[in-house]
Amino acid sequence: MKAKILGGLVAAALLAFGAGAQSLTPLPVQPEGLAYPTGGWQTGELPPESKALVDALVAEAMGKSVKDVMGETRGLVIIWRGKLVAEAYGKHFTPQTKQISWSMAKSVTQALVGAAKQAGADIELDSPMPTLYPAESKAAVITWRQWLNAVDGMDYHELDGDPNPVKSDVVQLMYGGGRFDALGYAMRAFPLVHAPGTFWTYSTPTFHMIGHALQVSLGTEGIEEESKAAFDRILFDRIGMDTVAEFDPKGTYLGGSLIWASARDFAKFGYLYLRGGVWDGQRILSEGWVDFARSPGPATNTNVYGAGWWIIPAKGPLTHRQNADSEPRDAFHAGGHEGQTIWVVPSRDLVIVRLGLMPNEGENWPALYEWNQRIARAFPELPA
User: Fold this and answer.
1) The total number of structural domains that make up the chain
2) Whole-prediction pTM
């Protein structure tokens, strides 16, 4: 009977979120008798066969400065099999210090949409997402799925953008012409130039648009305090995550870039995905939402992005160097400007959080990706 029920759930998830889920590594279950970390993390020991290497990799990260490859690490948390087994902080940073997410907020926004859907909001992945575009425009028919996969077609350049801050799309969006009205600026500055669903662009304004649509779906459009309360109710309070979300002066949630939380709380967020969107016996994220996040999107110009999360393709070459290209390939992650990562590894029952400061140029990102993978490889694989 259990097999029939499980088979039905898998079939339903594949229909709802795409056949790519068939090849995904199963998400590990909560260890029996272990409490969820809503009120705080239980501590544990590193596995004996992993300890020397993990300790050395933690020391390596903590010994670097901003000028070194991979930059300065300001907060580091490792969760293995549901327990905190390693933790370190830079000078002036503590387990309680809230640090900025930058683009890890995109992954948080994807979660908030899944939590709102689970809570009963009118969100259907293949229905048009509410926006401020005119009803007769081609943008009005872009679906939630296409926005979340970042295949909306916007002419926006961030990873491949102009390094000159006066000309940079992201700098102008955040601190130039878009600082008072992110959505209005994005609609003027970044026209739709690709057919929806055909071309992937890593896009902060895309997730600002999703943030606004989330507020519409929750009935809190343009109202900062009510939006924050709703976010807490459907997600953050339920997993014990103390966050600060930022809004522009129009009251729009800046879902592409600005969430503040501690390293331990970012680890709770990663753990929610490791456990398939379920927390302490309660479904927080809609059924299949995590698999949607870690499955490839529809555009042929990327194999490194799912829905609000970075993924590693089973086979190379990578379409963009903004990811690891090594084992374990089931790892998926939230990533943010200047070296923020939440690394989730189902095959090792592992979450790694690294918060820091590093230049985006040169070998910094490849080094950080491979550091995360070296940590992951140090832990034993779960039995098949």
Assistant:
1) 1
2) 0.94
